[in-house]
Queue: 4 jobs
Job 1
Amino acid sequence: MITKERIKECEELAAKLVAQMTPEEKVYQLRNGAPAIERLGIPSYNYWNESLHGVARAGIATVFPQAIGLAATFDEDLLEKVGDTISTEGRAKYFGQFKYGDHGIYKGLTFWAPNINIFRDPRWGRGHETYGEDPYLTSRLGVRFVKGIQGDDKKYLKAAACAKHFAVHSGPEAVRHGFNAVCNKQDLRETYLPAFKALVQEAGVEAVMGAYNRTNGEVCCGSKTLLKDILRDEWGFEGHVTSDCWAIKDFHGNHAVTKEPAESVALAMNNGCDLNCGDIYQYLLDAVDRGLTTWEKIDKALTRVLATRFKLGILGNADDNKYNKIDYSYVDTDEARALNLQASLESIVLLDNKSGTLPLDVSKIKTIGVIGPNADNRKALVGNYEGTASEYVTILDGIREAVKGTGTRVMVSEGCHLYKDKMSDLSEPDGDRIAEAKNVCDLSDVVVLCVGLDASLEGEEGDTGNEYGSGDKPNLYLPGLQGKLLDAVTASGKPVIVVCLAGSAIYLDSAYEKAAATVLALYPGAQGGRAFAQILFGQKSPEGKLPVTFYGEKNTLPLDTDYSMKGRTYRYMTEKPFYPFGYGLSYTSFKETVDKIVVNGQAVSGDISFKKDDVMDIYVTVENTGKLEGAATVQVYVSYEGTDAPVRSLKALKKVRLAAGAKETVKLTLGNDSFGLFNEEGLLKLNKGVYTVAVGDSQPDERSKELTGVECSTFKVSVAETADI
């Protein structure tokens, strides 16, 4: 993280440039596509670049698992390595492109990632861009991703990360440009803001992007509450704020909080939106003339924006910048591909494995059937905001590669379209590939059925290309005839392994009832098929955990326009889910034992008390009691035995990889934030009463116990008096 002194130096250098600019030059430098000012030695630059799970939209780059897949790894160290690889490739591509005069969109070092919105509703199309439904997991993974992106130099940023979309943003996509997200202060502080605060205060994230919607009546890209009171004044944010793209036009065009462009840009500028993604900030000239804003505010905003370029070493003298040594040879390296495969392997979640069906022994299989619309679908590997990989390995590709030379035959059928009733308009009848799929089943010893979604079915408003249009899902059922295909394939009597590629919760009740095993691959990245095959045939043990709740058909979903957290996610729902947050099986088994609990350096036992500013260390020994190498994810949940609180919340985690028979002791730490709860006024309190702490490889809920056969270790903690935190 660069030093405070360096930040001040960059701001001073930027201010000197701003002082030499004409009014027109100033306002055009505040648009994402900033033109060159040759007399001041400022090259043209476009601030809009994407790196959600790899450098995006600018040619060849490593395409890691989609963000929701990275979240399923529950691996903080991995996220930092992924971020570091992305910024290495970003640097390499930046220098290579600028070398030949390409200063266009998607070519800069200001990356508008990560998306740390909370995946509040499983129908939200952009949920797969996030790290899931839990604010603690999102915070931990987001912090490490940003650190990887921005690097460890004290003087220069390797690249600039951006926390988006600030704040209280998670659909519906179809109405986002005029929607008012209403939430109470408790939900705001308990759920929607923690990850943003962590990225600002722990990771020093360089930029924050406002959201399209209003929050409690204020447009997010012009919100005094969010951008000034909370982000700047309360959290001490020192970077720059950018609007979402064309969001400021929505102020008058959709939200109707202003009447015309000059009023809109003034509202954004006055409340701290420094950079405009779009083409409206030229109206700042008119806004100043009419007294709606001031040159002082504009100069301050531009100083922040240009300071970022000095921090990156792409303005001014940066001969001592170590990142200048990264040339184009660092793109798409063997090391990056190996890390991508590791990320894919860690992201895949084993949901069900009846009678130990998996892993398969290829020596006992003469024919394997690979069926389904996602068997050979490259789009189902990557999700959205993706780059272009030099190699894509689909599920079909991975299986073929794994059985090559073994004598095992692979037979294939699409089975059905991803969402249409037939494969071509002239086909008769509907379901025109199901008979073919049945033939493949007849000839196969085992069947891998590949179902789910891709980014044409869930994504951003305007990006998806199907009849759903908005990008949100209408429901959680498998689309089209996939349910019918699942019924037909499982009725064959052959062992069926269902693999679901999707970025969000899908009803998998039928797969659980009828298939021999169910695997959730999410969107596993360009190496996803290779990773899946290694798990399918037992070269690796699955280790992914669900970063979202998978609801069952009997569960109740609140309206997607309701931003109250009541009844949502594992933290607030009272119904039993189908597959719980934090759940995922392995081919091996683990035992987690709480060895000792230490409060403020003193070992404690029996009745444990906790007060403000105490620090609790929990020492847990994790033993691999199975026959294969694998990874356990130690999860610590805290629940308050009082009213008006989450059912439970994840408060610490640690991933441990162990050989068969090996053991390791890890320390997990709980502090004020672990036991504190926000009240109705949005104030953080350590409440008087009793808390339950649960430690294990899953949640301590009833459904996790049913699915794993294992109970978490629990202990009670008492707080004698309520205190402000």
Job 2
Amino acid sequence: MSKETIKIPDVGSDQVEVIEICVAVGDEVAAEDSLVVLESDKASMEVPSPKAGKVLAILVSNGQSVGKDDDLIELELSGDEEAEASNDAKEGEDEPADDGADTKRTEAEAAPAADEPAEKADSGAKSQSETVSVPDIGTEEAVDVIEVCVSAGDEVAEGDSLVVLESDKASMEIPAPFAGKVESVSLKVGDSAKQGDPMLVMLVQAEAEAEKKPASESKSKGDSDSERTSEDKSSGAKDAQPSEAASEKESPAREPQSAPAKVSATPGSEVYAGPAVRKLAREFSIELGAVAGSGPKGRILKEDLQGYVKNLVENKSARSAGGSGIPAVPEVDYSAFGEVEKEALTKLNKLTAANMHRSWLNVPHVTQFDDADITELEVFRKGLKAEAEKRGVKMTPLPFLLKACAAALRANPKFNAALADNGESIVYKKYVHIGIAVDTPAGLVVPVVRDVDKKSLWELAAETAELAGKAKDRKLKPQEMQGGCFTISSLGGIGGQGFTPIVNTPELAILGVSKLTTKPVWDGSQFVPREMLPLSLSYDHRAINGADAGRFFTFLAEALSDIRRLLL
């Protein structure tokens, strides 16, 4: 196996910066695989491997400035490449040089090009319209227009960016060849263009014409210049044309500071960032002016964009606290008023806060209140205490609430439904799964009891106790907290006379249960003590109206006051 040092090819600029290294020592690369990404002031480009082989050493580093023929990598050639290189060397020895023919063709092609601008310069007009076409972009294939930097009526200086083109290997900004005013733009974002296609029409000022005239005259000085050009080309026929193209591309960049500062037609065009970074910013819909650059001279790198997006995602919950255009709550330094202790929220607390906030912003809430007389239910429940002990369960009011709510959901299908994502339809559910909010040391969780309408009170008592235990031990599985149709949030064991629970979207309603109290109730002739259970029903007003909620509450209160109705 033979070794070969791969060098930086002619990239049309004296010095460019290495912004990305695409390979590592030990990698096997094929011909045309990308080795590094280079970036100049006007374009970024990938440098492909001219041969296949194994990377032995990388001779450049990120941020390094390099130029033509600088060492890039050391490559151990594969067997096929080594044999091909040997054959090429033999053929090169047998082939005679044909510099004379190349020189004649080059002179013949160069002659009309030199005369053309001279005719324009001699026109004597104070200003005239000039069509600016796509220059030599290093490929004959059409490339995509990914950004148009100017619009009709804009004044541009020589070197200002006009459009940004992108091929499979690089994106490049096309500078204005002269100063003037844009009359019309022929390209738009998404178009394809190739060398020679018109980009725009510019009204060239007299000053620009005066500058162009000496340049055109110098290009057609006569036989002496042609002879010198012929001599230069005969010594390096293949490199002559790219060198001239490179010098033309570099000419605007020799007046730094001025060109980029005047291009402000697109967001972020005044910041220091390469075409590849600008493209990535467009894909993320990021305003480059909001991103801090960490590269040399404040240049924005891809890592800066990635860090910016990561920061947005991580702080999404905090930023959304002022959602829907509501001004954010200002930060307060509480330590200025006394001693404080700061404790980080648990992941569960953060998720609960985000979910509740999303539901509150997206669902138009209405809450209705009522009291259910559960005097007879309590007498029956307490009478089951002995049997409950034998079964090893505790009969609380919750199983009764679950059975009554399941019956109410069956009787009022609007509550056992969900709005489709597009808001154009409503999905009615044929199953009855009810979530129960459980307070745990880590935060609030809502396990779901499935098929409530098909289970007995004993089954529900055992299952709710098991789910509550799992919740407190943080052993609930994700599937045990999914698929709910309705939620019950009970504060009965804690206290309170009523509250407004937040709908657990995409569900349409939630029942809040407060502390059971004994109240005097008029029976028609006198006040009698009754066990009254305060209930709060919050619902999504997009799908449920007040009359629907009234019917639901009436059915639920009747079922709880006389549990025999659950048998009907």
Job 3
Amino acid sequence: MRRLAPIAVFALLCVSCLEGSGAPDLDGVPVRLTILHTGDIHSRILPYAMVPQFTDQELGLEEGKESYGGAPQIATILKDERAASGRSLHLDSGDYFQGAPIFNLFDGEVEMRVMSKFGVDAAIAGNHEFDAGARNYATQIEQWADFRVLGANYDFASSNDPWNSRLDGLIDPYAIFDVDGLTVGVVGMANLSSITSIHEADNSMDVTALPTLSTLEFYTGLIEPQVDLVVVMTHLGLDDDELIARTNPHVDLVLGGHLHVAFDPIKVIPSEAQPGKDVIISAAGAFAKFVQRVDIVVKDGDIVAHDSRLIPIMSDIPPDPEMEELLEDYVRELEDTINLEQPVAHTTDRLRRFGNSGGDSPLGNLVAEAMQYRSGIETDFGMTNSLGIRTDIQGPANFEDVHVVTIEELFNVLPFDNTITTMFLSGAEVQALFDYIASRSASRGCSTQAQISSARFVMDCANEVGVDITIGGSWDECESDEDCEISGEICSANACGRPIAPTESYELATNNYIAQGGSGFFVLENNTTQEDSGISMRDAVRFFMQDIADGDSIPLNQLYPSGDGRITPRF
């Protein structure tokens, strides 16, 4: 196997595609293939407003555009790139469901029809494809999918659930494509890190997850003798993608998803399993912001040259009329059902979902408080999972302007239809809960995986425990316990509060997803005092914003300028 040549070897990419009927003889001939790679679209079927951040701008998204993303714009790009390519495949790395109100209303029907209209050849079954249930996903595939759905590492046959049995016949471990004589094998690896999270409300996948490397070794070894090129398409994350590239002797190209990163240019990883061979890794970003075009030249089973181009999706791309026609009725029903443009509050700066130091964030603090203080809830403390808050609240492009937060933006920030669940925890259970937060966060760079209200603690990532936990108290600023004037209070995360007592009882407000053990919060799953209020988490945040903004006279960023140190990471 030869090292991949840079695309300066342009002559190779200009080789005739040998078009014609029948299978051409490609022995000894360098053959060009274009792979169009998308992933993590997350229901951003319609163009949406946003302010591109630094990384997006570095990758080509320009400030000041009317909108970004959108299926009509992507369809135009895909048609243009195919027309300029010859041999091509369109592969999607999963999570095309969940993330915008069009999913909440139509349960994935629109996304499936759009993917089929795109001309997708194969797509991964991402974890969020199951958010409306295994039965719903099976139905959407059966009714609307004109593409192959892949997931080699999900064993649906292990379940007695009839809907999973249907999925066992709908989701394949791999697919082989004959692209005008060039045979391409694609193995799909679905998400495992969120396997405990693939449920919403009463939905649970109930499948057996198969080990990544051995499963992949089996299927890539199975298809390699049958194909010219072995592609592994994943929804695992970059670490796993790189591990696969280094250790699997059969793989030529990895198309990754799940972590929402985009590569420009694509990465090249030296293989440890086959010294002298390089493996390409592509990532196409998220939220319909980019299409990744990967051009490769294959000769006798080796990739001998490659190039890539990350194509940003912005409002100056003309929309595809056929895609607009497909979406027309859905858009009309969406507008008639949900007033997406209704204003909720305003801000003069961005409210971020992640804290600068890995601790609590301004948006996370707002969401946790909105749940805790909702009328009819009003518990001792609140908590939500950080990744359930899917994006920032946008700030204005010009800091002198005002950004209006609308219902549509709230759906983008909180796309899941979660409700607020309350429960009583003993002090010992609170300790176990905060220990889990520290442990889970430690494996993610000590960036907190939860947001809290009316509580403070030090997140000791080195020892994976929560220390100096307080719930309630005076919240007076302090540097040591001696600074706390009220008897019994301690100084935790620079504020005075009441330390938890192992035998005391504390009422928690959280979302029903983690109350049922989502994201690994098993410490809550078996609590017998749980009560699902039925109150929408998104609605609670909406009413809270409207209330604290005092009739929209106070910008949200003045009320929540930053994280206030509720969670102090200790590395």
Job 4
Amino acid sequence: MADKSANVSKPRDYKLIVEKDVRIPMRDGTILYADVFRPDGGAERFPAIMNISVYQKDKLWIPPDDLEEKPNPYMAWETVNPMWWCPRGYACVRVDARGAGKSPGQSEPSSYQEAVDFYDAIEWIAKRPWCSGSIGTLGISYHASSQWRVAGLQPPSLKAIMPWEGRADQYRDQAYHGGIFAAGFISNWHTTATAHHLLGRTRSYNPDAFNNNLLWHYMRNDLDSEFWRQCSARWDKITVPTWSVGNWGGFSLHLRGNTEGYLNAAAKHKKLRVHTGTHFHPFHSEEGRMDQLRWFDYWLKGIGTGILDEPPVKLEIRTGGSQKPYPFRFENEWPLARTQWTRMYLKIEREPSSDEHAVEGRLVSALPTAAGKLTYSAGGATRAGVASASSLATTHGGSGRTGVSFESAPMAEATEITGPLMLNLWVSSTSEDMDIFVTLRNIGPDGSDVWEVGQHGQPIPVTKGTLRASHRKLDSERSLPYRPYHAHNERWWLAPNEPVECQVEIWPTCMVFKKGHKLRLDIQPRDGVGSAPYTHYHADYNAGAENTIHSGGDKASYLLLPVIPPK
């Protein structure tokens, strides 16, 4: 059979037309401003790749030297490069969201209103005389999350989406991890976005831009509700062809949206891809761009690129410690049908230690017959003390190692763990609530961590999970044995020192633990290694409290692992 993968749009010598500050009318009379980059093809009509964001269409992105796409005057953060797409017969359209960049109006980032505006912009662009009427959406992060929302509104001209590393559930993926407020990233993001608008060049033409009370609303709505459903993906409404693209390093913001999107979107045609590396290198790589081009060539131009002939799941298989991409492997489903769901029980062996390399117990294959427990401080004291009113209580000086750790025996052979994970944990506390922070680590034969490349280029562990014990209530209809789905709609407070069973969702991962390596499980009352910048608010119920983990006997605390046998 002939290889169709090379059957894609080839660059042609079009003249580039750049239209700045194009006025796009919304249904309520508001005008949004956009930049349009398109090839001059005379009477020829072109499909468009679109995005909407608060990242200011006029703000030039100067990429790092090692990016496979080179700098040009039209590059923008987390969006497609017109100098690559326009010669291949595509228009690129960037829209400033309402109240951001040059667009007037009340700022509502990542909202239902923004989705409605995106719908209107898509339909207006589709009717331009130069447009073929076919629209696709593509972009990273914010530019991906917005795709889930607009796809649920089903604009007629939207023919395909490719949300690249995009959170989908604003409550579970971004704002509240396991019910714990993810203050670190969103607070910095909001402050920086405000500064870019008010302290940079933008103020000269939109002095009231990005005026919103996002952080207050996020903290005011600390349980799941219609507030969050309005600004999150509606899977049953997403019927457009969908290629959901995740990053194994995105276990604190985006990855869950991409795997949940692939599983739950109502689209007849859908694919899943998960890669490694930073937030932007894979997107701008030659390999990444060819996947993008083959997808949109097929759905927007009707070119037989063979993209649907390939298995629907494409995974980069991590083997540990590489700074460069790993080889991809195709699969037919997610999670993998041949998964051996394996329980590793927590066996408590010694009292907690403050030594950063200490291990309090082992991960074993059989439930320990004897019951055991480990008690540790929930406070995490810093040089400013514990949970004072000042922000210094969370930032002033490290608190050293907190919590407890368990390790597997050295791997007798290379062992692949690929898929979603779950920690079933019996806990109690002297307080009315308890935070459970879980970190999985790959420990080499020398006892040191084997790190991966995070989305910001930082060293990261294998994956993480979190749960606030009062949020342990499950949604029985949506929960799976390997992927608990917490309702987050009421609090089940703890009674002092009374054990309860919690199922902690650990975000999906892929790692081949080499022979001789060990899997380490950290259970902590606050953020562990490799968390920054995705850190959390450590609330006052931690102050002075003691938390306890129970395991063995009638309390089966175990880590559920997706072990993949060799093909």
